[in-house]
Write a structure and sequence with these properties.
Layout: H1 8-28, E1 37-41, E2 45-50, E3 60-63, H2 69-80, E4 87-90, H3 97-105, E5 109-119, E6 130-133, H4 140-150, H5 155-167, E7 174-181, E8 184-194, E9 197-205, H6 214-228, E10 233-238, H7 243-250, E11 254-263
Parallel strand pairs: 3-4, 9-10
Antiparallel strand pairs: 1-2, 2-3, 4-11, 5-10, 5-11, 6-7, 7-8, 8-9
Helix pairs in contact: 4-5
Length: 267
Amino acid sequence: MEDLPPDLARRLEEATARVTAASLAAVRSRPGNPSRVEIRERPEALAFVALARRVERMNGGLLLRRPETGELEELLAFFRERGVRPRLELLPEDRDTATATRLRAEGLGPRPGLAVLWAVPAPRPDIPGVRVREPEPRDQDAFAALSAAGFETAEEEARERSADLAARPADPTRRIYVAELDGVPAGTAGLSIQGGVASLTTASTLPALRRRGVHAALLARRISDAARLGCDVVSARAEPGSASYRNIERAGLRLAYAKAVWGPPSG
């Protein structure tokens, strides 16, 4: 593997934490906080729960550096006191025996890992046959419904995601996109910019329209926009070996590092 910029991992993880915290803060801002969101931000980790939304992606934590023993205990106590067994992402240097032993004692186990990919953004050619556009504010409900359908989300959670999106204020650091095949909406994606890092987020494609270049077109447009907006790094996250991972590699990103993921038993 090629040498990476010395501060790359720190920049990518801090950008991810800021994007995640901003997204959850918007959900928390809904009147009455119906999702019961709580966010705990510390130098060593971001932790979050949505107690009324037992969705794994909304109940977990990002470890930004190896925590001291007391810091790890405080992090685990945050979840334990709320009755949540979280999904935790750990950096490669956090994969030590002591941490693994402590997480197992908390009822957590290893999950499929997470690859973090990166590139210096440069304009990419459009994908023939796929049109990518930024939807108008009035189209937010349609965007949310299309995104949920692409992720094959249950109807109740799809309604919650639509309300979450409506709660987000206008934000120049965040963009959303719709891809169309022959004029038919086929997929969605997001782009978030923090500290010169462009994060490629939440891409989904309708199951019936997959393998027709939708994801590739969404990647190309967002990478081009990242370059146009002056970002010096573009980053994406995917499960190693997945279709998304392969598409991201084809778009020119390469592996920066792999993260360990721990969580409650699945199923």
